Amino acid sequence: MTTQRLVLIAGVVIGLIAAILVFVVVTQAGGGDGDRSVVVAKQDIPAQSRLVADMLEVKNMSADEVNPETFTARSQVVNRITAEAINAGDQILPSMVSDRAGESLAFKIAPGKRAVSIDVKEAVTAGGNVQPGDQVDVVGIFALERDADINAVLAVMAPGGNAVVTPLGSDRNLTVTLLQDVTVLAVGQSLAKSEEETSTIATMPETDAKSRPKAKSVTLEVTPQQAQLVSLADEYAVLRLSVRAFGDKGPVGLPPVITAFR
Hints:
This protein is α+β, with helices and mostly antiparallel strands. The chain has helices spanning about 1-30, 150-155, 195-200, 205-210, 225-235; strands spanning about 35-40, 55-60, 115-120, 135-145, 170-185, 190, 215-220, 235-245, 255-260.
């Protein structure tokens, strides 16, 4: 009798353990709330919108509510473009967004700004040490002929500046700060956070840089009006970049510099 009773008790215990294990397996398979993290729209998002982190949130949902294709982290979705309108609370699916995140220059420009490029030599970019993300001033050096109206040039390139009187019948060089505190978006083909191009130039021996001055393009983030100004100046002047110290913000009152010679 004792042996039979022990066998019976052992069977009951084993049955209870099996029931507990089944319950745990079912629960982990999706039987409870909050099993999976999914990315959902925090607000209504129109089609052809660039997704940013503030538009999205991560929610915990039960497995029976989750679409198996939904994204599980905001980092998988940020900077993609919506292919259709998405309602607040919708799970973000691959079919709703572009295949790749935005990686072009267009995704690095602030709203309302434009990207404009100017061709420069290595010496113009502060010895080749200008890097994406730097804040710079753009200085233009104009070579004016004897009969050129210097104040007409200033009216376009430095509106609001004072009139300038120079000797008659002389050639003149005019130096004026065209733009102040603008952001460098790219140097050559290197966008922000990429230092490969600028590092190569910065470490180039001085004699080699002088013997083989390579032309480079620097892309600046400017307003539409500034884009017109710097594009015009690029046709008629030598442009140089004056790098600002970190944290140096805002405009500085700078009169133009004129050199007259016969």
